[in-house]
Amino acid sequence: MTGMLEFVVRVVGVLVAFLVAPLLVGQAEHKVMAHMQSRLGPMYAGGFHGWAQLVADGVKFVQKESVVPAAADKRVFEWAPIVAILPYMAALAAIPLAPGLVGAELDSGLFFVLAVMSIGVLGSLMAGWGSGNKYSLLGGLRVAAQLMSYELPFVLSAASVAVAAGSLSLTGIAHAWNPWWLLWQLPGLVVFFIAGLAELQRPPFDMPVADSEVIFGPYTEYTGLRFAMFLLAEYAGIVVLAALTTVLFLGGWSGPGPESIGWIWTVLKVAFVSVVVIWVRVSFPRMRADQLQKLAWQGLVPVALIQLALTGIGVVVF
Question: Looking at its record, which EC class is this enzyme (predicted)?
Answer without folding.
Answer: translocase
